[in-house]
Amino acid sequence: MNRSTASPLGWLTSIPVYWHLLSLDAPTVAALWCWSMARACGIALPAGAPLLLALGTWLVYVADRLLDGLPGAHAAHLRARHHFYARHRLPFLILGATGALLLLWLVFTRMAPLVRREDTAVFLVALVYFILVHTQSAAVEGLLSKELAVGALFATATAVPVWARLGSAHTALVPLVVLFAALCWLNCAAINKWEQPLDAPLRFAERHLPLVCGILAAVAIVLAAGSHSSRHLLLALAAAAALLALLDRSHTKLSPMFLRVAADAALLTPLLILPWLR
Question: Which keywords belong to this entry (predicted)?
Fold first, then answer.
């Protein structure tokens, strides 16, 4: 009886863990926010646009984790996700190569030319940063916060499918993208803080994470009061910032895996306002 009741529960609790270990968390967040931004701006995205974004995001994260887990990497910096990739390197290499070929085919045969041009610009910037991070990590960290750069690139790539279809109405999307970039930055900063030893030196945003999250939530709520189209999405963004602050308050009592999964799950708050995104 104990075995039959424990087995389904164990299977259910493993779903969020594999959502993270298989690098499906960031693609889910990107696709959801892309679709939500489009709905908030009154843009009817092709069904494949968020899926294409999700595939591209997944490939970036797969490449990053494979490179991070190469032999010779600093063992102290490796987490469960890196060890998982190291154990399953060949399957991920095969899936990654197949996914990359599929992505290229879709980009050149299914993507609108304007979107392809803007996506290419973001990709080239991301590629340069990606190469520098994996070859000149210390120099890059000295010039620019990795968490800030990742947050900005992630938010920009997420917004491109909507941005390219807005025509001259770009200004309507700018505040939302800027705040989403800040949310992604705080998400990365929180993860970096939680994965560091307790006595590790922290940046300002990491030391005062609840305060910075509170400021972001307050700004989003103020902007929501004056925005009709993006109101509900801005409130979802404020809720995500509040969830990150709550997680930080209790992070010393929670397991590293729970925190890592919860950090990205906190960014799924647009699911709460789906009835208003029409």
Answer: Membrane, Transmembrane, Transmembrane helix
Write the CB contacts of 2 (distance below 8 Å, at least 6 apart in sequence). Answer: none
pLDDT at 38: 92
Give the pLDDT score at 168: 65
3 within a domain of the structure (yes/no) = no
Domain count along the chain: 1
Asked whether the beta carbons of 54 and 250 are under 8 A apart, the reply is no
Q: d(Cα 104, Cα 17) in Å, to the nearest integer?
A: 29
Which residue, 194, 271, 185, 277, is CA-closest to 231? Answer: 277
From residue 264, give the alpha-carbon distance in Å to each of 23, 31, 198, 243, 258.
Answer: 11, 13, 22, 10, 10
190 neighbors 263 (Cβ within 8 angstroms)? yes
pTM greater than 0.70: yes
Assigned domain for 11 exists:
no
**What percentage of the chain has pLDDT greater than the value 90?**
55
* Coil/strand/helix, residue 88: coil
Q: Position of tokens 């987490």?
A: 79
Degrees (nearest 5) of the Cα angle 237, 211, 171?
40
What is the 8-class DSSP label of residue 239?
Answer: H
For tokens 């790539």, name the residue: 157
Write out the residue range of the structural domain in which residue 49 sits: 16-276
Distances (CA, A) of 159 to 54, 156, 208: 12, 5, 28
The overall average pLDDT reported for the chain is 86
Which of 178, 177, 196 is CA-nearest to residue 188? 196
Give residue-wise pLDDT tens across range 46-83. 888 899 999 999 999 999 888 887 766 555 677 888 88
197 within a domain of the structure (yes/no): yes
